[in-house]
Every structure is written in structure tokens, then in C-alpha cells.
Amino acid sequence: MKPLPAGARVTLRRDVTEITASWRRVTPKGAPMRVSRELVHKDSEESMLIATMDEVSPDEYLARLRATPPVVQAADTRTTAVSSPTLLGLEITRQLGLLMGHRAGGIPLDWAFLLNELSFQGSDAFALGIAANAAAMTASVRISSARVRAGRCDEMTAFAVFEVDHDVVAEGSGSFRCVPRRTYSALRRRQLRAPHPRPSNGALAEVSVHGLDLQAHLGWPSANRLIFDHEVDHVPGLLFAQAGIEAHEHLTGTPPQEVALECPRFAEIGEVVSISARRSGHQVSTAADQAHERVAQVRCA
């Protein structure tokens, strides 16, 4: 992918522009526009982490977070990773990427976004801000690179900088492939009927720790509305991030502030996913394999 040329514009689909027009009809002049569930692919308000957004330039927006992310309160608190500030930062970054894909990238609302990579680097200030006063936090987000065909992105990377009182407290980045809904549905039709695994308390099950190494199976914490707020036809990428965070906590005794997730292929529901992790200093690398193929890699520090 290449950076967008200076002054480059993409074609906004009618469904995206209609949402924008509706916003402007009900929003006072000069006020930021409220983000709708459709633009961040969420079924419930409780799992939306972005409150408003405002256009700074054609490919850069300024977003403000929700006052108190309700999903933190609604999630299963028996595992620390569910309400991990770093996991929240990853999901905010993912939602910002979807938002930018639709608004700045002209991607139709019914297209699917396939996650390639997702990363987040937080801080103590971010953790404090997201827990105590998220509404005071802003995120400047832009499309840093994109592949544009026929005036529309089909692959893109979004980069976000989080600030509190003009101080940078975190950074995040997300890379996605963008696929027409009809094409995606044809590819995944059979998986919609796959039975879901038995619910678990966390992302790791049957954990075994030996020195610097961890072995486990991937769990299915369906009570975590941050991840499971809608029907899924594959294992969500954010679940692998949660597994990496939990592995880091098991091996180091502390939560990570940095997470980098790579998803090279789909992981299918109903098939065993093996988790292996190894600690090296303050870093933990976690691998997820299904049917002898790597489906995700997570690096935490």
C-alpha cells in the first residue's frame, strides 16, 4: 500500500453521505457529529467507544471518546483482560479505522473489513484517563496508507494519536482489507451455521505454565460485549489480542501497555485453537494455531 497523494479524494457512497447529511441536519453548526453504530459495525450502544467526530481535513478526523465506556461495567470482570485499558485501546483503534474507512475512504457501509494487523501503545496516563475521564480524551486519526481502485479503498491503514490536555498518551494503528458484502457472504456462508463453543470466563482455557512458557486452548468469553456484541462467522481478531494480554499477565504478573496483533488467516469457529506463549524479559510472544496453521500472532510488552 502507498500513502494517499496530497489532495487525493475518494468517492463517498450514497449510504455514507446520507448518514453525514442526516447528522448535519440535526447537529448545530460547528458542533462535532455523533458517531452512529453503522459506522463502527456495532449492534449495541454499550460497545461503542467513540462519541463524536469532526473533520479536520479530507483524510483526517478528530474523535472524542465516550464519557464512561459502558462495556467496562457490562463485561465479565472475573478476568482482568476484559477491562484492560490496552484491550480498550485496541478496540477504539479498530473502531476508528472502520470510521475512517467509511468516511475518508468511501467504503460502502455494507462492506466487510478484514483485520490484517492491529497495534496499540498505551501509558499510565491513558489507563488513568480511560478509567476516570474518557470524555476528556481525543484521538486524531488519519489514513496513513491505502490502495485505491475506482475511487474507493480496498485496503487501508489508519493511524491514531490519543491526547489528554494536548499531551500524547497513546498511539494505535489498524490495517484492513475491504471486501464487498456479497463476496464476503459467498465465502463465509457455511460458517454462519457453525455451532459456537461453550462459554468461558476468559480468552484462555486449560492453561499450563512451565517456567517462561505457557500452553493453553483459546476460550470463548461470550459475555465480553466488547468483542461479542454481534453474530460472528469466525473467531474475532480481538479475542486473540485478549488471549495475548492474558498470557502476558500469566507469565509476567503485570498487564501490558503495548500490544501488536497480526491475523494472517481466518480462524474457524468450533475448531480447536492452540495457544502457545513465551516470555523474553518484559515481552511475551503468543501464537495461535488451528489445524497446524498459524491464525494469529500477538506481541505484548
Automatic annotation (TrEMBL):
<feature type="domain" description="A-factor biosynthesis hotdog">
    <location>
        <begin position="213"/>
        <end position="291"/>
    </location>
</feature>
<dbReference type="Pfam" id="PF03756">
    <property type="entry name" value="AfsA"/>
</dbReference>
<dbReference type="InterPro" id="IPR005509">
    <property type="entry name" value="AfsA_hotdog_dom"/>
</dbReference>
<feature type="domain" description="A-factor biosynthesis hotdog">
    <location>
        <begin position="39"/>
        <end position="178"/>
    </location>
</feature>
<protein>
    <recommendedName>
        <fullName>A-factor biosynthesis hotdog domain-containing protein</fullName>
    </recommendedName>
</protein>
